[in-house]
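Q: Structure tokens for this one, please.
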Amino acid sequence: MSLRVDRRAVSVAVLLTASAFVLAVLLIGTGDFPIAPWDVVRTVLGNGSPADDFIVNDLRMPRVLVALLVGAALGMSGAVFQSVSRNPLGSPDLLGFGYGSAVGALVVIILFNGSAGAVAVGALVGGLLAGIAVYLLAYKKGIQGYRLVLVGIGASAVLVAVIQYLITKAQLVEASRALVWLTGSLAGRDWAQVWPLLAVCAVLFPVILGHGRALRMMEMGDDAAYALGVPVERTRLLLMLAAILLTTAASAAAGPISFIALAAPQLARRLTRSPGGNLLTAGLMGSVLLLVSDWASQRAFGADQLPVGVVTGLVGGVYLLWLLVTERKAGRI
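A: Here is the predicted structure, written as tokens:
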């Protein structure tokens, strides 16, 4: 056991936590019926008026909590995959797990006209099956970073084709419902989405954080990690399974929110200037990014509210292009 901490990393984590709290309060107070930040805090503590209590606790609090949990889940899962693959492009967005969840959800929507709960289960199963398939196809005496990314990109292309086929075969109502889900949105989220996602995060966050030291050693290479006593394949499989479950749970709760898992770990690493996965700061950065995107989707476009998935897609696409140019200049791709 070591109690040594990185002061800069701790400072960044504290700053991100404070930012997430402030953004959450501001977002709860934002809407057609605005509420002052101090009134939001007072209502959360149980001292608000009946009208404020209904708006805050029943209408807006679940949406903000889903945004916090989904952002943290995507940020932490992205950090795991980027560390395991030792590649900044090793994100669930590009490895096909989000598309696997989309296929599972669309099968339930289009073929079975399932309820919201059934769609969530379909997304979980689809994402998990896609993750297992990518892992098995990329495995050859271990997992190599670029092989994992290339297999994931190929799987994504196949899954996108399946999604397009399902939409073309759907009736108008089912196709409209599928397209709304595919966009990724926090609108209409209630406590039914909060509790299952909170349970998954409560179980998997400690599992991933508890393996943070082993993950840092694995970034030095499998041989070095073996020499330091890390059971590499078992640890890699456990972490990838936990990260896949986090990604699919986030997709089941809010649809496929793109690029948070790609950008959050990289931004966290640049802020902390620390080696390793920066798991905690990546999760906090994911929450902050999704809260900012949700605020922008509600307020930055006037009366026309956009699904948050559109905003993250626009920003994330620009970030991905910048990352590709940076990696090319550095000679890594």
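A few notes: The CA atoms of residues 120 and 252 lie 4 Å apart. The longest helix spans residues 50-85.
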